[in-house]
Amino acid sequence: MSRQPDKSTHPDAAQPRKSPSGPKNLILVGRFGAAHGVRGEIRIKSFTAEPLAIARYGELVNRDNSRQFRLSNVRHIKDDMLVARISGIDNRDSAETLVNQEIFVNRLQLPPPEEDEYYLTDLIGLEARLKSGERFGRVLNVVNFGAGDILEIDAGTAESRMVPFTKAAVPEVNIAGKYIIVEPPAEIDGEA
Q: pTM of the prediction?
């Protein structure tokens, strides 16, 4: 089963909540990379399943919704990397002010997930349980350092636990029931 950065597939997933405001209303869809050339173009790492889809979502915003971005002349350069012009950015110096900023889209601008899909942001806040039903913690975040999605789980200890978001380690996601079942690898569970 393939896990996509913008949507994930799972047999027990439900339709996302569509609240008009709040942190779950913004979906992370990309990150600005290095300036590209001298006319204000910039690289964009797209987190969407289809990289060029990021250009079809309309207005994008930064994390606190204080700045808006409109993409144009978007082109694919490799894998999930794009180059685009940003409205109001017309030189390299201006483009460099955006480097490493995350870009979000309002959830209501996205198509609703299919019946067996959900957005990764829907996992945040879900209770994590072991197969036995014992509480394992609560999902704090979904991160990706390049090798796949990882769930950061607050287990009530000094350090959070990192669990790979794979079918083997997370065999069940129940959005409606507000929980996931985890089978953490031995090295995460403290048995290694």
A: 0.68
